[in-house]
Design a protein that fits this description.
Structural class: alpha/beta
Oligomer: single chain
Largest sheet: 6 strands, mixed
Helix content: 55-70%
Radius of gyration: 22 Å
Shape: globular
Strand content: 5-15%
Length: 261
């Protein structure tokens, strides 16, 4: 946590915030101070319970820290969410907006939210789409081709490497812009195959994932694993790190001179 005046910014990992808060912050908070977060996890799931007399707000850039810094350095910014949980001084929103402006967020856009909404949608996006969904989709595609006898290198190019090309097109101009850039063959295949891969069973799994986030089950399990030395997380990390997809990817990426420049 970094402190500026009477504002304490909680910019450390979710799993260590409660301990640091209890040990190093709570004893020194006084009325009129501000406690700020970049993600709502610990407030949403009451791992941290601030006293009534302090402002509690969130300034959440929608991107990783190195991207926030990189965009700031070149005079741009990353879009941010802003939320106020406690407005003890009456100036919590002003302080939050000033902080966001200070990290460049005002150059990109600011959307008002709540700790609850930001936390639940952020966790769902990570689990069902951005990390869990996309990674497993690519992994399943890779495994399907390799099991069918195709070379791992071919499978990697088609199911992992080209993902960035498609996502970049969507990022720049939406689904329609992406479809403008791909072939009619690829677009036809999208409409035919997409609903078969991501079907009602997939949607039901997403609903279950969201329900676990909303009722606190995910948070309880995550916190318990953290207290257990990240045993389950580290087992999963080791398994994927030893997967053929990572070994193939390392070989493929070694050919890309622009990555190593």
């Amino acid at each position: 946590a970094a402190q500026w005046g009477d504002i304490v910014m909680m910019l450390i990992n979710d799993e260590v915030q409660a301990e640091v808060y209890k040990r190093d912050i709570a004893p020194y908070l006084t009325e009129g101070n501000a406690l700020a977060f970049a993600h709502g996890f610990n407030i949403r799931y009451q791992q941290i319970r601030p006293p009534k007399g302090v402002d509690v707000f969130m300034a959440a850039p929608k991107g990783p820290g190195h991207t926030v810094r990189g965009q700031y350095v070149i005079g741009q910014g990353v879009p941010c969410l802003v939320a106020v949980e406690q407005n003890a001084t009456g100036d919590a929103m002003k302080i939050a907006l000033a902080y966001i402006a200070g990290i460049g967020g005002g150059r990109a856009g600011i959307l008002e939210s709540t700790f609850k909404t930001e936390t639940e949608t952020d966790l769902f996006g990570e689990q069902a789409v951005l990390c869990g969904g996309v990674v497993d989709l690519m992994k399943c595609g890779f495994e399907t081709l390799v099991e069918a006898g195709y070379a791992p290198e071919n499978a990697y190019f088609e199911c992992i490497h080209e993902m960035k090309l498609i996502v970049d097109l969507i990022y720049q101009s939406g689904f329609a812009g992406m479809r403008y850039s791909i072939s009619n063959t690829a677009e036809y295949g999208e409409y035919y195959a997409g609903p078969k891969v991501i079907n009602e069973q997939s949607r039901e799994a997403m609903r279950e994932i969201l329900a676990r986030i909303q009722d606190g089950t995910f948070a309880e399990e995550f916190v318990a694993d953290c207290k257990n030395g990240h045993k389950w997380l580290l087992e999963q990390r080791e398994a994927i790190n030893n997967h053929e997809i990572e070994k193939t990817g390392e070989k493929i990426r070694s050919m890309f001179s622009w990555i190593h420049e």
